[in-house]
């Protein structure tokens, strides 16, 4: 690799002096951005998560998650749930009844099978095509419901206090699906370019990082097969500044 210097001299054939300009040499890059702005990334499931504060009923929340290529969150392992519980989500206190805790819709439904002496039933994943998930324990039943309702929807209750979050304390509620609540969406990790645009599978893009002259292919949410362009020094300019987001674009700083 060439040294990252403004210029370098070497002897060419016949004693000629060859001048190299290596203004922008590709450096090893650690790609850490795999989710759109506002989403939290979890490496264990290669997924992104976001809490939406606009109170919606369960069915509207499902549609909102689908519009961002996701679904209401389900969990594949206890470690994934612990990751969710540990996050300090960007929440507004006014959206919750109590200041120390909050609830949001997640991707399970409680199907009632017996109403004799107490409500009996079981949890199911709320949408088809979900990967293998664990099911919640017995729920706390929320607001009063009519006898005609046989399906309730899942709310995950978390806590604001850091100590409680770190210990993973939480509760599961089976709630009337037409109640309005915040909700948690989950989607697969994705490629995000240097300008924070989401990149579709198989397309070329410049990943977030310090080199706007990298071009990579998006594969399974990861940049692969990256190549770099080298830029010549701008002509007739002694002092200049490189554009951090545009390849081979400079601003001349000469008087």
From TrEMBL:
InterPro entries: C-type_lectin-like, C-type_lectin-like/link_sf, CTDL_fold, IDD, VWF_dom. It holds the Pfam family Lectin_C. It comes from the Eukaryota. Residues 44-186 form the C-type lectin domain. GO terms for cellular component: membrane. This is IDD protein. The lineage of its organism: Eukaryota, Metazoa, Chordata, Craniata, Vertebrata.
């Amino acid at each position: 690799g060439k040294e990252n210097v403004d210029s370098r001299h070497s002897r060419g054939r016949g004693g000629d002096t060859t001048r190299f300009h290596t203004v922008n040499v590709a450096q090893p890059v650690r790609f850490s951005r795999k989710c759109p702005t506002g989403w939290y990334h979890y490496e264990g499931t290669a997924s992104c998560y976001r809490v939406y504060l606009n109170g919606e009923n369960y069915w509207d929340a499902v549609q909102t998650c689908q519009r961002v290529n996701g679904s209401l969150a389900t969990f594949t392992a206890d470690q994934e749930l612990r990751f969710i519980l540990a996050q300090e989500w960007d929440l507004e206190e006014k959206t919750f009844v109590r200041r120390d805790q909050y609830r949001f819709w997640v991707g399970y439904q409680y199907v009632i099978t017996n109403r004799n002496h107490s409500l009996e039933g079981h949890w199911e994943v709320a949408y088809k095509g979900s990967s293998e998930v664990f099911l919640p324990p017995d729920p706390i039943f929320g607001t009063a419901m009519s006898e005609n309702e046989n399906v309730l929807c899942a709310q995950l209750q978390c806590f604001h206090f850091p100590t409680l979050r770190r210990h993973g304390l939480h509760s599961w509620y089976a709630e009337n699906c037409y109640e309005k609540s915040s909700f948690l969406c989950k989607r697969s990790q994705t490629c995000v370019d240097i300008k924070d645009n989401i990149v579709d599978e198989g397309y070329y893009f410049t990943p977030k990082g310090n080199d706007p002259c990298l071009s990579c292919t998006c594969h399974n949410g990861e940049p692969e097969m990256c190549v770099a362009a080298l830029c010549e020094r701008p002509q007739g300019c002694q002092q200049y500044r490189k554009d951090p987001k545009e390849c081979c674009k400079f601003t001349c700083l000469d008087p």
